[in-house]
Amino acid sequence: MTPHPASASFLLKGARLPQWLCTAVSASDGVDITVVDGKIQQIETSSANAAGLPVWNAAGALTMPLMVDAHTHLDKTLTRNRMGNITPGLLGAIQAMMLDRAHWTVEDVYQRANQGLNWSYAAGVQHLRTHCDWWEPNAQPIAWQVLQDLSFAWKSKIQIERVSLIPLHLYADIAQAHRLAKQVAANGPGALLGGFVHTSNWDLQALKNLFTAAQAEGLNVDLHMDEELNPAAQGLLRTTEIMQEIAFEGHVVCGHTCALSAQDRTLALHTLDQVAKVNMSLVTLPLTNLLLQDAITGKTPTQRGLTLIQEARARNIPVMVASDNVQDPFCTFGSYDPLEALSTGALAAQLPQVFDDATQSICRTDWLTGDPKDLPFRVGNAANFIVFEQANLWGFPSQTHARQVIRNGLPVSNPE
Question: First vs last Cα of the chain: how many Å apart?
Fold first, then answer.
């Protein structure tokens, strides 16, 4: 393929887009994308280039929108290097993280989170949602304000959303639940109410209080849900019932939902049938859950810990794939590149048509926000996309290291 022209106005010829975009933009065999002053002006199967723009010949190179990292933990990131041995599994990681919090200062959190955002930007992420541990009912955590500061600092590069990751028991008192929701709502757009829902802290009334408080403040909700292989976990099913009972008006994202893979199949599929009836997306976190679930010293794991991705998609439930934890006690691996998570997830879950279908899981902002206006790659939007210069349709995403990230029509490799 020819090099990118030295301007933000050009004609990209012969770009191979994923099939899921084709209903909105054109055929997947190869399209011409006209970019003027950094914005997409036209997408069509063949352009006559009447304006005489410089031509960038993609020659069939795989091309997709910039990415969404739907579930991360910028507050915890890059802490693994200062920890010793950690007991395998989720609860052991939580214990190690609680000990490390003694080292958290404004400067420490800012430096680590900012490094993660630099990696994310270079990979081609344009929208990132981060959870933030919130353990005290009457005080905002240090990281919450730091992440808000970073969202302002990065607003021209990455849209950052913050989720208050609050243990379920802190919602047990309805008045306290409303106070927590008011604190989150006071941060304005980009702040969501969240919680950790697990059999170890299960409280149906607390979960109802969480949703009642979110409804009162007009907040969307993002939950760590059933992150375990306990077939008795019922958080996801009860959440759908609560949403219907109170006619919840917001959008809900449930991350992990690993327990579906361990439950009786009839119950698991019934639960997914209920998810399909409400305004909910799921997020699977393959890197972290493959590492944390069924983790016993000296034993090779036999359970993968992934949610039922294929069954959910068969019901038209949006399922996203995200980085989750990066180089902290929950996951030693990761680099804030959603393609890394997709590559692992595609293998572990045996996903078909990875480029043409599964790339939705790392590109569909509307799946994360619940807002159909957030569909990426529209005429009139900024020319933000990724061209994979060496990847082919059948090898994707294993051949993705050579990529050209385009932001506002210009190639970039770092935020400076």
Answer: 26
